[in-house]
Amino acid sequence: MIAAKRVEIAVRSLWAQPRARQWFLVLGAAIVLFVLPFLIHLDGRPHAEWLEFFGRFHPLLVHLPIGFLVLLPLLELAGSTRPALREAAGFVLQIAVAACVITLAFGILLAYGSGVSGTTVTRHMWAGIVLLVELLVCLIVRPPWAAGQVRRVYPVVLAVTLLTLTFTAHLGGSLTHGSDYLTRYMPGPMKRIVGSSSLGSDAAYVGSVYMRSIHPILDAKCVACHGSSKEQSGLRLDLYELLMKGGKDGIVVKPKNPDGSLLVQRVTLSPGDKHFMPAEGRTPLTPDEISTLRAWILAGASPSATTVQGITLAAANADVPFEPVGDYSGLMKDIRQMQQSSGAKLVAVSARASDGLILRTVDVAATFDDAQLARFQRFAPFIVEAELGRTAVTDASMDTISKFTQLRILHLEDTAITGKTLAKLSSLSHLTYLNLSGTKVTSSALEPIKKMPNLRHIYFFDTSADSGQSATTADVTR
Amino acid sequence: METRRRFLGRSGKVLGWAALAGLLGGMSRRGFADEAYVKTSPLEDGNDLRLPHFAPKAKRAIYLFMSGGPPQMDLFDYKPNLASQFDKDMPASVRGNQQLTGMTAGQARFPIAPSHWPFEQHGQSGTWISGLLPYTARMVDDLTIIKTTNTDAINHEPAIMLMNTGNMNAGKPCLGAWLAYGLGSMNDNLPTFVVLQTKTNTKENNQPVSSRLWSSGFLSSEYAGVGLRSGADPVLYLDNPAGVDRDTRRKMLDTVEQINRQTMAEIGDPETNARIAQYEMAFRMQSSVPELTDLSKEPQSTWDLYGPDAKQPGTYAYNCLLARRMAERGVRFTQVYKRGWDVHGDVVGVLPILCQETDRGTYALVTDLKRRGLLDDTLVIWAGEFGRTVYSQGGLTQDNYGRDHHPRCFTTWMAGGGVRPGITYGETDDYSYNVVKDPVHVRDFNATILHCLGIDHNKFTYKFQGLDQKLTSPVPAYVVQGLLA
Q1: Do B372 and A335 touch (CB under 8 A)?
Q2: For residue B424, is pLDDT > 80?
């Protein structure tokens, strides 16, 4: 009792001091903020639409606190010579706190209302909360600093706050622009230092029915909302392990029981049903895709099986999905110049820049040699197909070609290639098609590239590797 | 007639060209010259024409056109139950109220003529193929056979126009011209769209084919098909006259071009630009065409595959070989015409000749493209303008029969980039007369071809006579999903 009394007295006496009272308020606010995510649980389900309506102003509002906070240290620094600016800094800090509170509120409305969840979303939210608490601390520690009483604390807290801001804003940017927004155009060497890589843990299943037939369907129709950046209903379908784990509504794939699998049920509802997937009018699965899913689940939903009854050869041979290449439209001037000086062309695969470019040499094939090819290396991140048939390129070019990391289709037919250096192409993980017809390649030279996981069509008609029987085309099947 | 609207419209165009030429000033003639070619690539175009709309499966197409109307039930559409119905009358309910051609409308009866030839199953797909097509039978697993193609026209000219241009009336651009206009050229030295005609055989009933079929219609005449002749001189007057060397010719062309540009500036007819482009193309073809048609470097395996006919210019097999060589050299669209399929009488006598002339060449082309790795991005199309009737035209005997035109169903096939190999699509009734399941109208057929080449047929339009004209207009058409890989 006495102890309690003592505590009470201590609290009262502290409360009587204005500075301590401020600390109490901040502490209280921090506790409320930290508890908030547990009260408003982001369960991955969409809630009332008006929540999302307001929530969608979050990306707009977010620029206010960012602007204020970037302005703050500038005002503080400039304030050392111009006192009026230091006074303004105090005001800017206050409105930054207010803007931050509003932005946070709208952010939570957005996440809760739209039912978006996922690690990036959660991290973004926590970073925003931490940022607000830090700002509140700034609010307290600034007056003594401005009065010249405490010199170190405020600058340190402000610096930490700015770092938190950067981190939070980056996460937010990743949510709206995609996680590879910053790294996509990073120069190769820098990328290696940063260590950015996009290989999922499904790499072990390359060549399986899952990878060839099932994953592409999910990737095309489902992963936009059930993937690494968005995780509606807590469900991710971009990796086998997560597909089998299911989401908030439970397991979605029951091996050997397609009709009992939520995945199949949801895509086969009538399109008007509110549980019908894909939601929001996105392209539904085709009957063929649904029957492929069924067949795979019926056969046990194995990640590694290479044959499944009922999945036709054509479907099993479907192209593996590719990550889109970056947008080259900023390089148009350089591309035009290059075409003019070289005569070889860089042609768009389609109107969508992310489909990449084709290097087309047909008009200047006879003079297009190793040195010419090397000049195109700077466009390598965007070149998905290289038409080098009938050109003067030699074995020496394999080094250059190995740097065309986005290459899917490579034509080398009727060139002087001997195949000695073909192994250098092994690093081209996207390569699906390689034409070596009419070259000097030997069957032993082909060995190293036959192990390439995605390389499914190797042509070596009219070479010594060509055994001369009717099956002169090697559709490498695994 | 020069109307005010046309004059203003044209003046606007001229100003547009001039402005664009100013913007692109200093660029070389290769690629995207000042006359603002739509040709080279979508990169260079204005915003209104960016093609392909999506990444295409096929970059180029080869269209083997069987003019006259091949009899589907003697080649692909196997109807075993007909054998027992020889000379019985086709039930009136099958024909319904269909209006027949003047050639059989007056017949007293419509006796069923079962196919004279046995069918067998081939390939892993177990596709039924007539004994008349032993070579085609070897490649059924590469084919996407459509048994339910159907058309609106019952006579050759409207039907062949509809098949090629999407409209029975002349004046619309054909498929190849649309492709040349939309996708542009892949090479600078050969035309984008080439037409190869096969020499006629007098034993066959040859319906005329004309340049209307490879016309560019209301598009610039640059996009029309360029016909290569079957003789020793594939393009007439292409070679320099005696005493004129290539430099002299170049100088002459440069001067002509200057004059043409003056004309363009004065009168502003875009056709002048087309003419300039054609002169330039002809100059480059002086060296590219001899190289194209020089078959001396073809390996023995080519002759083993295509057969001896391929050495004779003008034969179907020769044209198939040229089509492969053009595919390698960046020709976007090649159309090979084979006439003579109009077998109104003596089917038993004539059809084997037609098949013997074409079967091996067709097989060789698909197989050659496949072994060289070209079939992955080349779409091969085999079609005529319509099919033929199950009932006999004229007298039916144990040994022979005739067949009249039939628009309601006929068999076509595709192979290669974008289509699903080894399937047979659609079902016809017991008389190969009506479509029972999955009809493919000519417009759907063309929409599907455009899709394989990365084009959304509904978005691919050209404003003319107040309409957004397209290959598949005016009735809605659909890409046939079941045909796609």
Answers
A1: no
A2: yes
